[in-house]
Amino acid sequence: MHKPIPNIAIFASGSGSNFQAIADAIQNKKLDATIALLVCDNPQAFVIERAKNLQIETLVLNPKNFSSKAEYEMFIGGKLRDLNVQLVVLAGYMRIIGPTLLAQFPNKIINIHPALLPSFPGAHGIKDAFEYGVKVFGVTVHFVDSGVDTGMIIDQESFKMETPMTIEEVEEQIHKIEHQIYPKVLQNLLHL
Ligand code: GRF
Prior knowledge:
Bound molecules: 5-O-phosphono-beta-D-ribofuranosylamine
Shape: globular
CATH class: Alpha Beta
């Protein structure tokens, strides 16, 4: 008997290169999952275009149209349950997940962060690490809890800056690592 293919939802606010990498991994049979939904809080985000090309259902929401964060998250949570989503995958979603969604999906929300946590949490991980002058950079995938980038670490990958690099080169290398590690972690989480 075939195991059912798990449904995931991806939350993103920007370019969506991680969204694309996950979709590509599914297409290339490296990841057994279905992206049942994209949740996006920014109507200008390029990730919406990517989802359209892949015919992936998309929820574009303006949190300001809801009376509270709890109501915003209740709405999203209802949609996730309707679609039988088993794992919520944050990929450049520039918003803190509140108690409403956390309670509905305990240990079922993960995030990717472009630095080696617990160093350099927050919205500018790459810039902060670069400006600090670290020589080892990396990527962290972690469970989401109520803090900012504080949840339990699932996996990390690093690289060493052997010769001087610009911040753009560091960024490129970090994204390359992200696009490999995130589908791999998802496959392990969903199927091991
Ligand atoms: C990534 O660097 C991720 O680590 C961070 O936000 C960025 C999103 O990039 N959380 P993209 O939208 O997936 O291209």
